[in-house]
Design brief:
protease, globular, 4% helix, 2 helices, Carb-bd-like_fold, Immunoglobulin-like, 711 residues, 8 domains, Protocatechuate 3,4-Dioxygenase, subunit A, signal, mainly beta, CarboxyPept-like_regulatory, 8-stranded antiparallel sheet, carboxypeptidase, single chain, 58 strands
């Protein structure tokens, strides 16, 4: 009997487990879609089968006459898309994390293999080297595969598609190589240089080891030190108990270093790899004590901050904070000579106070006293231009004390617009106020004895005084409401498709209102409203728009991949105008934009190698063939004040009110293509003198740049 019960229990358990397994198996169906093009090197490929695979689920469709395919009603899951035509194969993995996937490009091409051999600088083959080969992209490798080199250092990596190939080679104790574009015609001969370690120690000015200090490196010229979500960041190490450290596997070149001890200021410097063992000295520095004297009864937690040294070449400006002890003092060690800013801030009920003072530390121990005692009291009231009290505004008092100490007190206004400042130290003071929806009031100087309350007037902002209300209903071509839509970049969810919102009016300028919804072509309405009026647009019908196909080419006629495509209204061509449509070119340079408006619009093409191009697409046109112009080429080298080239960084060129960015090579050189005309170029995020330039289409202008400060 027990045996029968046991078998029955096992059967029930098996059924439950099977049911659970079936229930947990994710479905292939869902609310999303995947769409894109199948392309070959000669253009879109019509009438080929495309399969989408997720685990054991397989969906199938065929491309239309334009090479377009779409899978509707699929789950948000990782899908593998494949297309075949004879011996040609194309594949693409789609990770649907956020929902729908557009602009998926499948490259259909015969199989190809990258071959080569990896050897060291002495010619010895390197075994076990990791080789990745894939499609070359600006931000890395796409669809790469990885292999290890054999006994003879050889490797073979299949790479699907027809786009340019890039190869990344990594080996322990060697400097990585990135090869792009890589050829499949001749084998690659990859030579890896040995990497170099940086060894050294960090000591103080007395020769004692500095324990637990972090060492950070960056290539010379790079603006910031490398960072990551994980600790420690790249090119970083921590000193040991004897002050020593080691950073392995570095490429030769010039680096900037940062030493961050625990209890003293950071130090900056330079080091050249390959280098002998280094010995970096962090000055012990002196002690600064900040004594804070507060009015009686004003007890609250505060933090004292010290920022500096300001503008020091060899010590990095840093910010340190200490909480004062019971006597009101906070001490900071490791202070080197230089200029500093000391500050403290605190909240008292509905009041915010901030004290700051810039001073010079000479290196010896010093006590800086911030005496904030005071018996003065100021009262006031905040009103608008009609004399109506403003509640919830903020009044601010600014005061400069003896010795250069600056005090800021900020309070919220009461229901009647009133405010009061208590415990104000002696000194020249001024007060002003502001409030949401209002302009800043005039600044008023207050005397040591202010018998009458200060009256501050804050006028309503023009956008509030001169606003216009716009309302309407968004519907489809059959008059059915669209429940989810956007008006002037603001999202609305309304079952009846209704909206109402305010816009600021600037004089006699027309008001442009954009209306858009997922799956529909957008609309742009031009209004000529007057201040304070209400404009009722009624039903705004959004249609399906038109399909725009075509091709974008580089100046040499080659299809241009990774170009960003935007459509803009001719009335609003600037970067602040709304996007009428958005997309990207496919690997062969193909364009496929659905839902573009029937009205004329500007087609804007932007690519990191070529100047931005705009073309007007008239109404009724459904194809566009664009070949980008070569533009004006800027080239040069960026050096520091000593004449050394920056090994990392970028440049910024401004022409006709638009910005264009370029990157530096390891020898400090740059090449940047911009539209023809006149402008100026400077070093990105570094102090430098802008260099003017002027040139015509196809010309090359040389502009060398100099960073004004050192490390």
């Amino acid at each position: 009997m027990r045996l029968r019960i046991f078998h029955h229990a096992l059967w029930v358990l098996s059924v439950l487990l099977l049911t659970s397994a079936v229930a947990e198996e994710p479905s292939a169906r869902g609310p999303h879609f995947i769409e894109g093009l199948v392309v070959s090197s000669s253009g879109p490929v019509p009438d080929v089968e495309v399969r989408a695979t997720f685990r054991e689920h397989v969906l199938s469709t065929r491309t239309d006459a334009r090479g377009h395919f779409v899978f509707r009603g699929v789950a948000g899951a990782p899908w593998v898309l494949t297309a075949t035509r004879g011996s040609e194969l194309g594949t693409q993995t789609v990770t649907m994390v956020m929902g729908n996937e557009r602009f998926v490009g499948i490259e259909l091409a015969p199989p190809r293999v990258v071959k080569g051999r990896v050897r060291g600088a002495a010619g010895t083959p390197l075994k076990g080297v990791r080789v990745r080969a894939g499609i070359q992209q600006r931000l890395g490798l796409l669809k790469y595969q990885e292999v290890l080199t054999g006994e003879d250092g050889g490797f073979e990596v299949p790479v699907p598609g027809f786009s340019p190939i890039a190869v990344l080679v990594n080996a322990p104790e060697h400097v990585s190589r990135y090869i792009a574009p890589a050829s499949v015609v001749a084998p690659l001969d990859v030579v890896l240089e040995r990497s170099e370690p940086l060894r050294g120690e960090v000591v103080d000015s007395d020769g004692k080891p500095v324990v637990g200090a972090w060492i950070h490196l960056k290539h010379y010229g790079r603006v910031g030190f490398p960072s990551t979500c994980f600790w420690p960041p790249p090119l970083s190490a921590q000193t040991r108990a004897d002050g020593s450290f080691e950073l392995p596997e570095l490429a030769r070149g010039r680096y900037s270093f940062l030493v961050e001890p625990k209890d003293r200021l950071s130090a900056l410097g330079e080091v050249v790899i390959r280098s002998q063992k280094v010995r970096w000295v962090v000055p012990a520095g002196g002690r600064l004590t900040v004594a804070v004297v507060l009015p009686k009864g004003l007890i609250h937690p505060i933090w004292v901050h010290v920022d500096g040294p300001l503008g020091h070449r060899d010590v990095r400006t840093s910010s340190r904070a200490r909480r004062p002890d019971e006597a009101g003092s906070a001490s900071f060690d490791g202070m080197v000579p230089g200029r500093y800013l000391v500050s403290l801030s605190f909240d008292v009920l509905e009041e915010y106070r901030r004290v700051s003072r810039e001073f010079r530390f000479e290196g010896e121990a010093r006590t800086l006293t911030l005496d904030l005692q005071g018996a003065r009291r100021f009262r006031g009231r905040l009103v608008d231009e009609r004399g109506v009290a403003i509640q919830g505004g903020h009044a601010e008092l600014n005061l400069e004390l003896t010795g250069g100490t600056k005090l800021l007190i900020r309070r919220a206004t009461a229901r009647n617009g009133g405010f009061a400042f208590e415990h104000v130290p002696p000194g020249e003071a001024s007060v002003f106020a502001d409030a949401q929806g209002h302009d800043e009031s005039q600044r008023v100087k207050v005397l040591d004895e202010q018998p009458e309350p200060v009256r501050l007037v804050s006028k309503r902002e023009a956008s509030v005084r001169d606003a216009v209300r716009v309302s309407g209903r968004v519907v489809d071509a059959r008059g059915r409401p669209i429940p989810s839509f956007q008006v002037a970049h603001q999202s609305f969810e309304n079952a009846r498709g209704r909206f109402s919102l305010s816009f600021p009016v600037e004089g006699n300028k027309p008001l442009y209102v954009s209306i858009s919804a997922e799956g529909f072509a957008p609309e742009l309405r031009k209004l000529a409203p007057r201040a304070g009026a209400t404009v009722r647009l009624g039903d705004i019908k959004l249609g399906m728009g038109r399909l725009l196909t075509g091709r974008v080419e580089a100046p040499n006629g080659q299809g241009l991949w990774e170009a960003t495509v935007r459509c803009r209204w001719p009335e609003l061509p600037g970067r602040d105008g709304p996007d009428v449509c958005y997309g990207a070119t496919y690997p062969d340079g193909s364009l496929y934009l659905s839902g573009v408006p029937d009205e004329p619009f500007l087609l804007e093409i932007q690519h990191h190698e070529w100047p931005r191009t705009r073309r007007l697409i008239p109404a009724g046109v459904d194809t566009a063939h664009l070949r980008l112009s070569p533009g004006l080429t800027l080239e040069g080298v960026v050096r520091d004040a000593r004449g050394l080239p920056l090994e990392s960084g970028g440049v910024l060129a401004r022409i006709d009110g638009e910005d264009h960015f370029g990157t530096l090579s390891t020898d400090g050189t740059y090449v940047l293509r911009v539209p023809p005309g006149a402008g100026a170029i400077e070093v990105l995020n570094r102090p430098s003198e802008p260099v003017p330039f002027e040139g015509a289409e196809g010309q090359t202008v040389r502009a060398n740049l100099v960073v004004l400060t050192g490390n």
